[in-house]
């Protein structure tokens, strides 16, 4: 049964309102934003704490919150709590360690607009090598990440709307491109805020209604336990190292450009604590809701004598079977919100990097701000088309694709971001070595054919762990073996710390 045949008009009304709303926000942002590069790519550094928090959260969670995580809980049980717990700790540490320092330091270090911009200014990269390598990492991993998000959109259109998977990819990407193209960073952040609210409501509503259908939380838990006795064993199917690997997802936060760019854009460092409270509250409630969707799904599917071929569609099944079509359409919009918020953020980060770190740096050093904005908009379209091509395999696992990209950024940029903000002695050579070692470790770990105990290395130990550790070691060792930073760089670091204490 799909939403089209089981009540169609209401679903399409809800989705149409959602699509038009997102585009309307894009139009509003187009007229509201400053017509310069900082306005288009960073919203003029004027985001409120609430918009910063929900924008960071919505762009972070993507389709895996409503598809991947509930599916993992459905298939594997409470062992998925290792991921949720690791992410929660990582996000909180990100607000404490990265957000305030990055907000101040990016202005102190040459008013950097992109993360590669900041790296180049922070380490006085006269060779442009650091900026170029970081831009390559951004473009490579984000294109895969965007493709992973589009897979979720394609699955939604196919499973719930009875439409072709490929058409779903194009519709999802098309709406995102429409508001990102014109509204830039402000449009992305405002739509993320609205989408974050929609996602939270959905994640609380669905498990509440599902448990009521099966006799309450206690009864549902009992049924789920009878179906899978290992469902609530937090170590089921994993070793101690496997559990640590799942929790290590939290390390990735320090290196995710689409998340930490929000910290660069918040209007004041004094707003960071408020944003932290809002963001962490939203995240914890959303993760709990996602886990409960998976548990209630096990019980519901069993009680109804149904089968579920793809666990990642359990949220979709609930949206179709338990709600009026108008509400069902709202829940489908929640999935699209999760997917589209991430896609828009990723598209903007990649297009900003292509514009600032490739086009302006190598092709047109004197490019005017209007030309840079035009190149950025063109890049949004080109990257979206490439991501659609990569997302052509509808059998791709959303969680698996996201995990590779997440690890790549976490290992390549995580230690680099943390150490650059907290260790004055870190230098250009250490930054370059750490970034390259981190990125290559993840690639080799995932695709190099390495095995541990007879299983693929990435299945035994999540690639972000060796990548993060080796990147950190390379950064520290190379920095200590090479000359210290210049007096200018040391002075900028001291100025950053002075402003934080003021």
UniProtKB/TrEMBL annotation:
Protein name per UniProt: Sodium/proline symporter
GO terms of molecular function: L-proline transmembrane transporter activity; proline:sodium symporter activity; sodium ion binding
InterPro entries for the chain: Na/Glc_symporter_sf (IPR038377), Na/Pro_symporter (IPR011851), Na/solute_symporter (IPR001734), Na/solute_symporter_CS (IPR018212), Sodium:Solute_Symporter (IPR050277)
Membrane topology: Multi-pass membrane protein
Lineage of origin: Bacteria, Pseudomonadati, Pseudomonadota, Gammaproteobacteria, Moraxellales
Transmembrane region(s): 12-31, 73-97, 129-147, 167-186, 193-211, 231-254, 274-301, 321-354, 374-392, 404-423, 430-448, 460-481
Keywords: Amino-acid transport, Cell inner membrane, Cell membrane, Ion transport, Membrane, Sodium, Sodium transport, Symport, Transmembrane, Transmembrane helix, Transport
Species: Moraxella caprae
Described purpose of this protein according to its UniProt entry: Catalyzes the sodium-dependent uptake of extracellular L-proline.
Main location class: membrane
NCBIfam families linked to this entry: Na_Pro_sym (TIGR02121), sss (TIGR00813)
Protein location: Cell inner membrane; Cell membrane
Biological processes, Gene Ontology terms: proline transport
Protein family (similarity comment): Belongs to the sodium:solute symporter (SSF) (TC 2.A.21) family.
Reaction catalysis annotation: L-proline(in) + Na(+)(in) = L-proline(out) + Na(+)(out)
PANTHER family: SODIUM/PROLINE SYMPORTER-RELATED (PTHR48086), SODIUM_PROLINE SYMPORTER (PTHR48086:SF3)
CC annotations in GO: plasma membrane
Pfam families the UniProt entry points to: SSF
Recorded name of the encoding gene: putP
């Amino acid at each position: 049964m799909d939403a089209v045949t089981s009540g169609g008009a209401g679903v399409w009304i809800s989705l149409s309102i959602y699509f038009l709303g997102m585009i309307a926000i894009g139009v509003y942002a187009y007229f509201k934003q400053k017509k310069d590069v900082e306005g288009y790519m960073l919203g003029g550094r004027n985001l409120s704490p609430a918009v910063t928090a929900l924008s960071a959260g919505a762009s972070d969670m993507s389709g895996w919150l409503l598809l991947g995580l509930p599916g993992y809980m459905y298939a594997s049980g409470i062992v998925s709590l290792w991921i949720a717990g690791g992410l929660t700790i990582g996000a909180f540490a990100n607000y404490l360690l990265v957000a305030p320092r990055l907000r101040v330091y990016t202005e102190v270090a040459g008013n950097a607009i992109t993360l590669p911009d900041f790296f180049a200014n922070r380490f006085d990269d006269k060779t442009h090598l650091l900026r170029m390598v970081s831009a390559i990492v951004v473009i490579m991993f984000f294109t895969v990440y965007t493709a992973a998000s589009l897979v979720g959109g394609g699955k939604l259109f196919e499973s719930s709307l009875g439409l072709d998977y490929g058409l779903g990819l194009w519709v999802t990407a098309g709406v995102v491109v429409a508001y990102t193209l014109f509204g830039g960073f402000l449009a992305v952040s405002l739509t993320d805020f609205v989408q974050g609210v929609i996602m939270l409501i959905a994640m609380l509503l669905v498990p509440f209604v599902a448990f009521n259908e099966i006799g309450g939380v206690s009864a549902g838990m009992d049924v789920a336990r009878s179906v899978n006795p290992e469902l609530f064993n937090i170590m089921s199917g994993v070793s101690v190292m496997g559990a640590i690997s799942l929790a290590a997802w939290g390390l990735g936060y320090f290196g995710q450009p689409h998340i930490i760019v929000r910290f660069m854009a918040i209007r004041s460092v004094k707003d960071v604590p408020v944003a932290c409270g809002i963001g962490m509250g939203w995240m914890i409630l959303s993760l709990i809701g996602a886990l409960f969707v998976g548990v209630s799904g096990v019980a519901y599917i069993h009680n109804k004598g149904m089968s579920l071929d793809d666990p990642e569609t359990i949220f979709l099944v609930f949206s179709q079977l338990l709600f009026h079509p108008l509400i069902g359409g709202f829940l489908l919009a929640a999935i699209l919100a999760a997917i589209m918020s991430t896609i828009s953020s990723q598209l903007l980060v990649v297009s900003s990097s292509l514009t600032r770190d490739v086009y302006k740096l190598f092709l047109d050093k004197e490019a005017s701000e209007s030309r840079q904005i035009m190149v950025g908009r063109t890049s949004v379209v080109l990257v979206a088309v490439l991501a659609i091509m990569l997302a052509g395999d509808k059998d791709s696992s959303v969680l698996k694709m996201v995990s590779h990209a997440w690890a790549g950024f976490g290992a390549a940029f995580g230690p680099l971001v943390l150490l650059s903000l907290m260790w004055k002695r870190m230098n250009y050579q250490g930054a370059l070595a750490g970034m390259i070692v981190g990125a290559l470790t993840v690639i080799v770990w995932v695709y190099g054919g390495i095995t541990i105990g007879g299983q693929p290395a990435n299945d035994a130990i999540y690639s972000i762990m060796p990548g993060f550790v080796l990147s950190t070691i390379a950064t520290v060792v190379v920095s200590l073996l090479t000359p210290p930073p210049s007096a200018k760089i040391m002075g900028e670091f001291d100025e950053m710390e002075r402003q934080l204490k003021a």
